[in-house]
Amino acid sequence: MVPVLPLLLGAMLGCSPACSLDRGASQSLHLQLRESARLLGQLKRLPGHQCLQDRTDFRCPWKNGRLTRGKQREDATCCLSEMLRQVLHLFGTEASRDAWAERPLGQLVTSLLSGLEALEGRAAEPSASCAPPLDMAIRTYFLGISRYLKGKGYSPCSWEIVRAEMQVALSTFPVPAEKSPKKRRRSM
Predict the structure, then answer these.
(1) Average pLDDT over residues 47-61
(2) Which pLDDT value is given to residue 13?
(3) Residue 96 structural domain
(4) Domain for residue 124, yes or no?
(5) Confidence bin at 24 (pLDDT 50/70/90)
(6) What is the pLDDT at residue 133?
(7) What is the number of other CB atoms lying within 10 angstroms of the CB of residue 57?
(8) Alpha-carbon torsion 8, 9, 14, 18, what sign?
(9) Confidence class of residue 123 from pLDDT cuts 50, 70 and 90?
């Protein structure tokens, strides 16, 4: 699985994000994100109390309800692909493959890829890009995580902190509600 991982990531990272979800895709995607968060939980190697000194606030842009209302939530739909790509990139690095056991890491990457495929394969409308403020917030968030890992020398505790952060991030991302047929007709 590991030698194929960079090829799969390269293929998926080249896809464009989709904004609207077809009927039923929202529920499926929600389940997919929960499964990915569960798999992140299985990667856990160290007790959290051993890594307290390494904790940091990465300032997740969607935690604490920052993207839960109206237009912001709709814009977040466009950014979901970007978020999944960033998580894939983070856990597809050589350093990540050195930090985690091959099998659970492969299962996580497969789950994330499935989420991207489900999101992009069920798009009801043409692709749209992520709103610039949200896109920048997501990129800044993941850049901060990458810098943190590098600054900590990719230590086991730093990976444990990032694993826990990603578990929460996947669990709290505002999955869009499915569009009703009426709303879709009005948007055409």
Answers:
(1) 89
(2) 38
(3) 19-175
(4) yes
(5) low
(6) 82
(7) 8
(8) positive
(9) low
Does residue 37 lie within any of the structural domains? yes
Asked if the model's pLDDT at residue 26 lies above 90, the reply is no
Please state the three-class secondary structure of the chain as a single string: CCCCHHHHHHHHHCCCCECCECCCHHHHHHHHHHHHHHHHHHCCCCCHHHHHHHCCCCCCCCHHHCCCCHHHHHHHHHHHHHHHHHHHHHHCCHHHHHHCCHHHHHHHHHHHHHHHHHHHHCECCCECCCCHHHHHHHHHHHHHHHHHHHHCCCCHHHHHHHHHHHHHHHHHCCCCCCCCHHHHHHHC
Query: How far is the C-alpha of 159 from the C-alpha of 139, rounded, in Å?
Result: 19
Residue 181 lies in a domain: no
Q: The CATH number of the domain where 142 resides is what?
A: 1.20.1250.10
- The answer as to whether 71 is a domain residue is yes
- Residue 88 is predicted with a pLDDT of 94
Among residues 158, 164, 170, 148, which one has the least CA distance to residue 62?
A: 170
29 vs 177: which has the higher pLDDT: 29
* Number of domains comprising the chain: 1
Q: pLDDT exceeding 70 applies to what percent of the chain?
A: 67
More confident site: 142 or 63: 142
Q: Is residue 121 within 8 Å of residue 28, measured between CB atoms?
A: no
